[in-house]
Amino acid sequence: MNDGAPVAVTSTPVARVGLYRWRICAMLLAATTINYIDRQVLGVLAPFLQTEIGWNEIEYGYIVTAFQAAYAIGLLCSGAIIDRLGTRIGYAIAISVWSLAAMSHSLATTVVGFAAARFMLGLGEAGNFPAAIKTVAEWFPRNERAFATGIFNSGSNIGAIVAPLMVPIVATAFGWQAAFLVTGALSALWLVAWLWIYHAPEDQPKLSSAELAYIRSDPPEPSVRVPWSRILRHRQAWAFVAAKFITDPVWWFFLFWLPKFLHAEYGLTLLGLGLPLIVIFVMADVGSILGGWIAGRFIKLGWSVNRARKTAMAICACMVVPIVFAAKAENLWVAVVLIGLATAGHQGWSANVFTLTSDMFPRRAVASVVGIGGFAGAVGGMMIATFTGFLLETTGSYVPVFLVAGSAYLVALVVVHLLAPHLAPAQLDEAKHV
């Protein structure tokens, strides 16, 4: 074992082996984009549905918590299901559930109705990241995984850009129910394309033998599925779990409360929310791609995986710190830039954190590890949703939440380093004999 050593890369020029794997990455990008459009519709409409439906801040917090609770349950189960059924069928099941759930929001008229729709949406959407990360592990050699993850993960920002651009127009023209129906239909269209296009690399006739060899250029791994009990014996798993638990709640806050923050602090209308949110999530999109690219660049310069990954994570963590000043910014665009810098930092961080799983675990365990970590992140999201709802209902102040956001990533980086100081691969097979 060569802990933290640079990954050996085939000497064959990448341009000559084919590019079919990037088509698969494009499919993952599209799925993640649709995933975030569907979940972001409620956040964009929240300031105005709050008036129409009549919920208060605490009740809105409960609606968000319902999504988080289902997302947590779904993540805990979906990773193992996808590892068992494979990415093609597992992904198809997940997107079928979330497509129907997204459209069911159009039938809700009460807090309970919205909470029920959000719960089902959370169950379905939980399958996206475990399936996507497993697909990347199957289709990309290790030295390209962070970049591929950064690309598909940027779909979360594209979705968050498209939602405030599209949803206000659709809702203003055809009613808020139409916004949920239109966005939910997009996932149904993706499902058809996925079942038509996707096959495992070894079963894909359009994949050249040279590209398949390049994809499989890392040392071979056993294919036996690994149970959670064996995964959780390793500090590497807890490093990923801690990173998700500490930092995911910040991203959930961005998704579900930024429109309300901008409406409450700067008086933005439904149509007026579009441009500030687009700027914020365009910055996040750039951060996602650059965060994955910079780690890969460091590796190609000869850095160890450990040094490259943690340096990239440290840069991203520092980008989030200035958000502590956003809650009191007098100018809208000062707040937008500070928040955008933080969202960029989060997404660059996220691209590298997701890649930690394939750095430290074999492909057969990746989806399960991602699911367990995602469960922890969703539990953290439940806590921040309930906390934020009560905080805003009683004080009306966003300052404490922004203070937590600004410090969370540096704390998480310290915890990751303490639990996995070298990003050493977990010896899962040896664990059977412990």
From TrEMBL:
<comment type="similarity">
    <text>Belongs to the major facilitator superfamily. Phthalate permease family.</text>
</comment>
<keyword id="KW-0472">Membrane</keyword>
<feature type="domain" description="Major facilitator superfamily (MFS) profile">
    <location>
        <begin position="24"/>
        <end position="424"/>
    </location>
</feature>
<feature type="transmembrane region" description="Helical">
    <location>
        <begin position="308"/>
        <end position="327"/>
    </location>
</feature>
<keyword id="KW-1133">Transmembrane helix</keyword>
<feature type="transmembrane region" description="Helical">
    <location>
        <begin position="237"/>
        <end position="258"/>
    </location>
</feature>
<dbReference type="InterPro" id="IPR020846">
    <property type="entry name" value="MFS_dom"/>
</dbReference>
<protein>
    <submittedName>
        <fullName>MFS transporter</fullName>
    </submittedName>
</protein>
<feature type="transmembrane region" description="Helical">
    <location>
        <begin position="366"/>
        <end position="392"/>
    </location>
</feature>
<feature type="transmembrane region" description="Helical">
    <location>
        <begin position="270"/>
        <end position="296"/>
    </location>
</feature>
<feature type="transmembrane region" description="Helical">
    <location>
        <begin position="398"/>
        <end position="420"/>
    </location>
</feature>
<dbReference type="InterPro" id="IPR036259">
    <property type="entry name" value="MFS_trans_sf"/>
</dbReference>
<feature type="transmembrane region" description="Helical">
    <location>
        <begin position="333"/>
        <end position="354"/>
    </location>
</feature>
<keyword id="KW-0812">Transmembrane</keyword>
<feature type="transmembrane region" description="Helical">
    <location>
        <begin position="89"/>
        <end position="117"/>
    </location>
</feature>
<dbReference type="Pfam" id="PF07690">
    <property type="entry name" value="MFS_1"/>
</dbReference>
<feature type="transmembrane region" description="Helical">
    <location>
        <begin position="60"/>
        <end position="82"/>
    </location>
</feature>
<feature type="transmembrane region" description="Helical">
    <location>
        <begin position="174"/>
        <end position="197"/>
    </location>
</feature>
<dbReference type="InterPro" id="IPR050382">
    <property type="entry name" value="MFS_Na/Anion_cotransporter"/>
</dbReference>
<dbReference type="InterPro" id="IPR011701">
    <property type="entry name" value="MFS"/>
</dbReference>
